[in-house]
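Section 5: illustrative case.
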């Protein structure tokens, strides 16, 4: 992707090899965001240029800040935007610890029934999940066609 390559080159030109190091997720204060926007507007810099100048990994976040500032002023920069898109994944249900490889002959009837019920629940869950995924795909395809 040439866009990413241009971004890396611009960051390297400003910050040297340190700009190419892997970094953890960065959270920016409202004051920093405001400073970036003021500098961008004063010097008429593009999102890419200001992102390279301030070592911001994703230049499009500057556009988000600008849109939020234009819509709600400085207070909008201090609030976190509402999450959109897919919801976070559901946590996997915790399963009771099972013996490594028990011999079915030595297990009691109650243990076998409990395992059977657990497997049935897992199977039902996976079927429901598959049905929801199929429904979502069908809705997306229908939306694309229209």
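Designed sequence:
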């Amino acid at each position: 992707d040439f866009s990413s390559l241009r971004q890396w080159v611009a960051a390297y030109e400003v910050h040297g090899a340190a700009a190419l190091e892997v970094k953890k997720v960065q959270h920016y204060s409202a004051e920093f965001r405001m400073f970036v926007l003021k500098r961008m507007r004063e010097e008429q810099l593009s999102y890419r240029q200001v992102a390279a100048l301030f070592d911001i990994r994703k230049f499009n976040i500057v556009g988000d800040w600008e849109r939020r500032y234009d819509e709600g002023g400085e207070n909008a920069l201090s609030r976190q935007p509402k999450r959109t898109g897919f919801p976070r994944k559901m946590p996997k249900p915790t399963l009771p610890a099972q013996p490594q490889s028990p011999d079915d002959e030595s297990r009691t009837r109650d243990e076998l029934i409990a395992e059977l019920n657990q497997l049935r629940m897992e199977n039902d869950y996976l079927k429901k999940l598959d049905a929801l995924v199929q429904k979502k795909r069908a809705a997306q395809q229908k939306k694309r066609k229209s």
